[in-house]
Write a structure and sequence with these properties.
heterodimer, A: alpha/beta, seven-stranded mixed sheet, 7 strands, B: about 90 residues, mainly alpha, globular
Chain lengths: ~260, ~90
């Protein structure tokens, strides 16, 4: 009887994966088309009538966040997303620093519900869709601009109240172990005295896995941890600061996996 | 043969400037991969090394080929020998 039960369970889990991928990618494609066909003309019209660049950028970023929020729900009920804010009283703007396990991380940031831009590596810019959206929304392409320009642009955004999201590993780890952190976001924080908010993402290593588009059922938890203020890090150099933040995230992830 | 005092001095720079635990500072440790320094941290590292060893290495092209702690020990040993000859 036992091998039969195991066989049935395997079959059921395979069916779940097939169902998840059919339903997720269909809804995702539909949401993406609607986003492009309706979202951007709406923003363009708003810009044309309002003639307020700042308001238009806010609307574009809001629209992208809504698109992200829809995307992360496309896998429901086989993929569930839980957001935990450990310091809800803290007010943005922040420099959010998150671990990076999967391509879904960028979409998952929609749960933060603040006006924000992401710091992009080179490879996402090679995807035409992402390239277009990131340019329109004013995302920071850290590898394609001189470091001084990056600091200047980042400082301006934070002064306007826009938060910045960084995945300082630079590439997806694909596992539960974090890679080393790059220091650009931390140097920006030190330059302007911005609050750094660590964000720990767990459970999405296979949603989808690195180098694959196959979604697997699972439960994703996004934890927004208490921010590190300028007062707390003013004695640290950029290396020490990034190491401390990395340890904070790793500690939280380790505690979750126990 | 690299002097142990030079190794000790280089390790002091890493421990003091970057709070890297000494047990991680092995000759085979990769400065970028294992110790987690990035290109901007290297600027701080060069400044700290210049101060510690009283040398000017910022514009030396040979720095670019340093990958591991062993490479760094060898490089600084070479610089020290060059200084002695001069």
């Amino acid at each position: 009887m036992e091998p039969q039960m195991a066989q049935r369970t395997t079959l059921l889990s395979r069916l779940c994966v097939v169902w998840l991928n059919i339903s997720f990618w269909s809804v995702f494609a539909l949401a993406s088309i609607l986003f492009l066909v309706l979202g951007f003309p709406y923003c363009y019209l708003f810009d044309l009538l309002g003639r307020n660049r700042r308001r238009t950028l806010w609307l574009i970023r809001r629209t992208i966040a809504n698109y992200g929020a829809v995307t992360i729900r496309c896998g429901w009920p086989l993929v569930r997303v839980r957001y935990v804010d450990y310091a809800p009283q803290e007010k943005p703007p922040f420099i959010y620093v998150a671990n990076h396990r999967s391509a879904s991380d960028a979409f998952l940031m929609a749960v933060l519900s603040v006006e924000c831009v992401e710091i992009l590596n080179i490879w996402p810019s090679r995807l035409p869709f992402v390239n277009f959206i990131s340019r329109v929304a004013g995302y920071l392409r850290v590898r394609e601009m001189p470091f001084e320009k990056f600091i200047e642009a980042g400082s301006r955004l934070l002064a306007e109240g826009v938060s910045i999201i960084a995945f300082p590993e630079g590439t997806r780890s694909g596992s539960c172990q974090m890679g080393q952190f790059h220091g650009s976001a931390f140097r920006l924080a030190q330059h302007v005295g911005a609050k750094i908010c660590p964000v720990a993402i767990s459970g999405n290593e296979h949603i989808p896995s690195r180098g694959s588009l196959v979604m697997h059922p699972g439960r994703i938890v996004i934890s927004k941890l208490p921010a590190v203020t300028c007062e707390q890090y003013k004695e640290l150099n950029a290396y020490r600061l990034k190491t401390r933040v990395r340890e904070t995230i790793q500690k939280h992830l380790d505690a979750q996996s126990v | 043969m690299i002097e142990s005092e030079l190794i000790q001095a280089v390790n002091d720079v890493f421990a003091d400037s970057f709070e890297i635990p000494r047990e991680k500072l092995t000759p085979e440790a990769q400065i970028f991969g294992d110790l987690g320094l990035d290109s901007l941290d290297v600027v701080d590292l060069v400044a700290a090394i210049q101060k510690k060893f009283n040398v000017q290495v910022r514009d030396d092209e040979r720095i670019r080929s340093i990958r591991s702690m062993q490479d760094l020990y060898n490089y600084l040993s070479m610089i020290r020998n060059e200084q002695k000859k001069a």
